[in-house]
Amino acid sequence: MRIASIASIAALLPxxxxxxxxxxxxxxSLAPPAGLKPLLEASAVGVQIYRCGPPKSAEGAPAPVxxxxxxxxxxxxxxxxxxxRHYAGPTxxxxxxxxxxxxxxxxxxxTEPGAIPWLLxxxxxxxxxxxxxxxxxxxxxxxxxxxxxxxxxxKVGEVLEVPYRALYVFxxx
Length: 173
Known about the structure:
Largest sheet: 8 strands, antiparallel, barrel
Mean pLDDT: 87
Oligomer: single chain
Number of strands: 8
Strand order of the largest sheet: 1-2-3-4-5-6-7-8
Distance between the termini: 43 Å
C-alpha cells in the first residue's frame, strides 16, 4: 500500500510543480544564458543531507551547526518516468550514464517557507556522451522543503536527511 502511495505522489508531482510554476514567476536573475534551449524539465523528490559539525565558514566557533553535505534525489519526467538522479557534486546523472556537474551562478529565495533557494547553475559535462552532455545550465525552481533545521545540532557527526522537492530545468546548446 505504501509503495502505491509513493508512486501516486511521484506521478502527480510534475503536475503540481507545473501548476506552481504558472503562479510563481522565475526571477530574471535565474535566466539561463542567451542561446540555450530547454532540453528537459525533471521533477526531483529526495533529501538534502546535513551533518552536525563546526561551521564551515567560521573557524573556532564553539557551537556545532547543521552543515550541508549533499543532495540525493530521483529525477522524473512529466509522465513520472525516471530520467536520472541528483547527488553530491552537485551532479545530475541521466539514466543513459551521461552526467553533468554544476556551480552556482545565481540564487533567489524560495517562495515557500523552509524551502531551499532557487538556483541557476553553470553546468559542464562530466561523463560519457548522452542526454546530459550538451547541458550548460540548470535551474532549480519551485522548491519545497530541504532547509536545515533552525535549531542547533548537539551531536557532532550526526547526519540529518531533510525531504525536498524541486523542478530542475536543463538548458542545452
